[in-house]
Design brief:
Blueprint lengths: L5 H6 L2 H6 L8 H13 L4 E4 L2 E4 L5
Antiparallel strand pairs: 1-2
Length: about 60
């Protein structure tokens, strides 16, 4: 959060603009939470070498 700082990220158009990525962005914390949920209950999604697919209940 300190570098480059939220004001710089905002000025550059946000994380999606900076990364030229329109898909979801999973933070370390969010990625770990999804990993933990899937590991404990495989109905919540799947984990492959290509990434993580999270399927919340009712989705």
């Amino acid at each position: 959060m300190q570098r480059p700082g939220s004001s710089t990220i905002t000025a550059l158009g946000g994380l999606h603009q900076m990364a030229a990525w329109s898909g979801p962005i999973v933070t370390d914390s969010g990625g770990f939470q999804a990993y933990s949920l899937i590991r404990n209950n495989s109905k919540q999604g799947r984990i492959t070498a290509q990434g993580l697919t999270f399927q919340p209940e009712g989705g």
